[in-house]
Amino acid sequence: MRLKRLVPGFILGLALLGMLMLPSFSKAGDTGVQKAVYHVDFGSARRMNATLHNIYNLVNYYTTKNIDYDVRLVSNSAGVQFMVKDVKGTKFAGNKIPAKTATSIAEMMQSLADAYDVKFEQCNITLQRTHIDKSKLKSFVTVVPSAQVRLVELEGQGFAYIKVQ
Q: What is the reported pTM?
């Protein structure tokens, strides 16, 4: 008899607990849009090429499945060399990136920006420290005050953080 009185209270307690836990299963800023931010703070052309191929695979999947997405690449430190139109006159001018690889990276970035609306964001602190003028950036690259702050903001908005090794 005592068990019969406890069962409804137990079920109600479980239901309330379940309702309280529901918000913890959703990401901050969840809008149904799949969001990813790729962090590039390295100067390796091989890693940059791999990063761009990963981005392409992601956005191509979302596009073919008709899934809304917001994909960004945030660059700082040595990653700036991939955001400029030309490394001449920068501290990265001496880097030995094969012409074929450099062309492939530039074309893939342009294609991702134009055809897939991938957003490229460059850290202003890096621009200042490397003495690179904003006018040297590729046309589709926007400047953010700080890459680290931007990454934290985007993660707070529900973006998945991805860094290709």
A: 0.81
